[in-house]
Amino acid sequence: MANFKRLLAGAMALCMVGAVFTSCGDSKKDDKKSNNGTIGDKDADLKEAKLENEEQKVKGSEDSQKKLKIYTWNDEFKSRLRNFYPEYDQEKSGFSVAADGTETVGEHEYLKNGTEIVWVTTPNADNAYQNKLDEDLAKQSESDDKIDMFLIEADYALKYVNGKYVKPIKDLGITDDDLKDQYQYTKDIVTDTNGVLEGVSWQATPGLFAYRRDIAKEVLGTDDPDEVQAQLADWDKFNEVAKKMKDAGYFMLSGYDDSFRTFSNNVSKSWVNNSYEVQIDDNLMKWVDQTKEFTDKGYNHGTSLWDETWNADQSSAGKVFGFFYSTWGINFTLKGNAGDDLQGQYAVCEGPQAYYWGGTWICAADGTDNEADVADIMKALTCNKDIMLDITKKTEDYTNNQAAMEELAKDYSSDFLGGQNHIALFVAAAPKIDASKISAYDQGLNESFQGKFKDYFLGSVDKDTALKNFYTAVQEKYPDLKVPE
To answer: Are residues 144 and 213 in the same domain?
Structure first.
């Protein structure tokens, strides 16, 4: 797409909606039309044309060829590589894991073939990771210090798979047969508009509702997942239980954002249409209305995702009944926040609505000078059934191999979840995931939408003002999207 050229050159650019639009300029509109064969249907979801990859004008230096440079935003993939990739040299890298799970590495990390691993880590919030990645990818063709691999999330995957800096998976020698057991939606998210697969993931991320067993017994009379699910089977029932929790001195949810993904990942249209207008789906406004009600009635604790109180609410000191979490959240966040006191005191059920949340994909940077290492890592961590089974057994992450997960679900027990077989719930939920409504702008728009409506939940602005503030924030983040005056 035309604006991807500007995005990946370092200037995020796009334009947003309403009955009256700010002008984007005729030349920009014509440019976008030339990249979009269905722009006549303005209500259709935006489908961006794949850009051709740039010619690599400079080869990697000798030093670059000896280093595997990987861009990411946190330690999750680092941990997977260090613990489960057979060619990671744990001894030479000084890698160790303490009794509490804390991982330690030396000053430098290596593969067994002597290649040094160089991590470039930038926080994800406020598009910081994307901005850093965009800036450095734009230099790739003329730099002798090559990026080899980078990680992306569903919220902005399309931006990169339809951009010009990713090497197709087939060009790495990874075949359809290698990928046959991966969940289809995990491939759909990173397939460009030409039908070419541009990334792979080791995980699938169906979501569930995690709840405190002790609170469930006290308020609902049972902690059995099937019986709790019956009381949370739809949003009306969920709201009824929220009142019961409040009356008993508990919060149903921790904060404003906890239920957001159950609504945002069940929309009927994506954030941006073919006319480069932002579309606010009715389901997003249902989240706004529910969260306002929960805030006003004291059904939530008034926290925001990832803040200190939100984390503490998941511990024994918290008074929160439950949390919406996908696969990674249960093992990667909730388990740690729960502490020793709540080991075995959480359980999970489907909740009022099926959804997914997140996921991480591995992309090979076009121009990598360590192609064999990149391909081997991808194949080992996302296609090898034995390795993926090992990841799930040791971390409780839900890995992206349907055959492996179905096998494991026959007889699985989670100590953290009091012996529950939550893998069986994920196996049932994963094939239902529909990722067809994602857009290239989901991270930025989701963050701005949640952030600006927080003022409404707090009562400092009315709903109309929150909406106007959201449009203003989007104009600042994506200046070429069309916005109401």
So the answer is: no
